[in-house]
Structure formats: C-alpha cells, structure tokens
Amino acid sequence: MESxxxxxxxxxxxxxxxxxxxxxxxxxxxxCPDAALAAALGVFWTRGYEGASMADLTAAxxxxxxxxxxxxxxxxxxxxxxxxxxxxxxLAYIRDALEQPTARAVAEYLLRGAVAAQTSAGDPKGCxxxxxxxxxxxxxxxxxxxxxxxxxxSHAALVERFRRAQRDGDLPDHADPLALAQxxxxxxxxMAVQAGAGTSRADLDKVVDTSLMLxxxx
Length: 218
Known about the structure:
The chain is mostly helical. It has helices spanning about 35-50, 55-60, 65-70, 75-90, 90-95, 105-120, 130-135, 140-165, 175-195, 200-215.
C-alpha cells in the first residue's frame, strides 16, 4: 500500500510578531483541521489503528502533538473522527445502494461501489472498517467494538431493504433477507482483504460478476 504522505508543512515554531493578533486561547494555529484529518485518515487506512503511531500521525498531519490533542482529542477520538470522514466521503455508495429500485440492483451497486472504493488509485487499498475490526490487542477492544457497531447499523439497514423487497415481490419467498445481507458482507470483507493484498480491480469485478450469478431475485 502507499503510505500517507504529509499534506501540510510543519507548524512554524517562530515567535509571533508583536503586531500579529493573538490566537484565541486553546485554539490550534497554523494548519487546516480538515486537511489534517484527511491526512490522519490516510495513516489509519494504511497502517490500521494499532499500527498508526502518534509520530506517524503528527508527521502526516503536519502538526505537533499538543495541536493534535487540542484539535482532535486523543488517538482514539481522532480515529473516530477519521472514521466519520471515511464513511461520509468513501462509503456514500452504501447509502446510494439502498435507494436502488430492486434488491439485485442494491447488491450490484453495493459490490461495485466497494470495488471502486477499495481499489481507488488515490487512496490506500482495502477497507478501513475491516482493518479497524481486526485490531487485536486489549487496548484496542473499544476500537473494534465501535467499528463493529457501525457495521451492524449498515447491516441492519440492508436486511430491512431486502425484507421490503420481499414484501414487494422483488425477492422470492424462499430467500432469506438476513442470509443475503450476510452473504454480501462476507463477499465485501473478502474483497477488502484481497484489495489490500494487491488484487486488481478487474479481478475483483469478476468476483462481483460471479456473486451476482447466485442472486435469487431479478
């Protein structure tokens, strides 16, 4: 994977001139919080929560530890904010998938959106959620729990969408909405691992094609 490169110059350590207005007390100076958070997201996405050291984060964000703490809180709070950004910017396809007119279209939109996100040339490969859920030390238990809770929310929305499709006659009676949602998430997670290992988009698209051949509806 590509490592996250610093997006900003380090904060200046020079003393402010006498004529320069003082910054509000407690407010970090000299960097853009949005750009710094995007840089932190790149580090977490590349290295995982446990693999991302404070030195990695501050270097990529172009800020000092005190500024990081003042703007974002501790490392765990920073990860939560980075995950919010990830879901808003990189996982919008999940929300759009739920709006598709048929259950099969939902499945295809979800799978192809995941492939595009997991193999994007401008981002690290794989899925931040899968990386976060794999955190294994006792210290990272809260991170894993938080990531899994977010995943469960998306999973529940998908199950409900398939239940609605079944009520509308779009899925046959023998189809199990819960099992279909679990099937898709299993494929999604497997593709994320493969993407992280360097599998090409073309090969992952073939996985999507094969998965859709097994779909029970139209």
